[in-house]
Specification:
By secondary structure, this protein is an all-alpha fold. 63% of the residues lie in helices and 0% in strands. Helix 1 packs antiparallel against helix 2. It is elongated and about 60 Å long.
Length: 94
């Protein structure tokens, strides 16, 4: 996966998340092996949540570094710039 372009990597992530959602929905349905499915589904849900949390943390961390470095003519004045601090963001034209 490390060789995939960003677009293909995001498409793969979408596919994986859809499959995860499908499986979790299956675990939520009532069936003859409900306790076994509930245990398996709970483990999958918790592990998926933890992985997504780690990914969200990494994405936030990377975005912070990229904002700090600045892009193009943008020269951030703080270590916690907001989206409105970017001069490329135009205000509402009234």
């Amino acid at each position: 996966m490390s060789g995939l372009p960003n677009g293909e990597l995001l498409a793969a992530l979408d596919s994986v998340l859809l499959e995860l959602e499908r499986r979790l929905l299956n675990y939520a349905r009532i069936g003859p092996e409900i306790l076994e499915m509930a245990n398996e589904g709970l483990v999958l849900a918790v592990r998926a949540g933890a992985r997504l949390g780690q990914s969200q943390s990494s994405a936030t961390h990377a975005a912070g570094h990229l904002q700090l470095v600045g892009v193009g003519e943008w020269k951030p004045t703080s270590t916690r710039p907001g989206w409105s601090d970017d001069p490329r963001v135009a205000g509402d034209a009234d």
